Amino acid sequence: MDATVITAAVTGLRFAYDSLKTLAGMKVDTEVLNRILAAQEKVGAVQDALYDMRDELFRLQTENEALKREKTAADAWNTRAAKYELTQTQGGAIVYKFSGAPLHYACPSCWNQHRVEPLQDNRTLSGKYRCTSCKAEYPVDPRGEMPDLNVQYERPF
User: Coil, helix or strand for 12?
Assistant: First the structure.
């Protein structure tokens, strides 16, 4: 049932109610008047029920649209998330790795909020990558040992 059917029923009942009201105003005997009043009460009750149905239909249609939007968003996230896998990197960090190209890692903290934030290489020897959104750092790709800064080199002069 849609809103046009309910609107048409309300219009028809309003006409019947007004017609009965007109008949009640005419000079008729008491028995006919009592029957008209009883019919008016029944038509009024049906009208009230139709108004309630219309309101409930509108509420359900609004809820249905909201659920469709939520499902669409969830489906889009699931499609995007399927391209990533949770992995432990060489540096020991647990992050999401993209399975396609270009290779990149996503921040697990932002992931929990259904956001993909690619980690950016800090270009340090420790191999830390940084999330530009939440500023978290993850040891993804260590580049080797730190040079010993206490080594004495001979000076050429």
Answer: helix
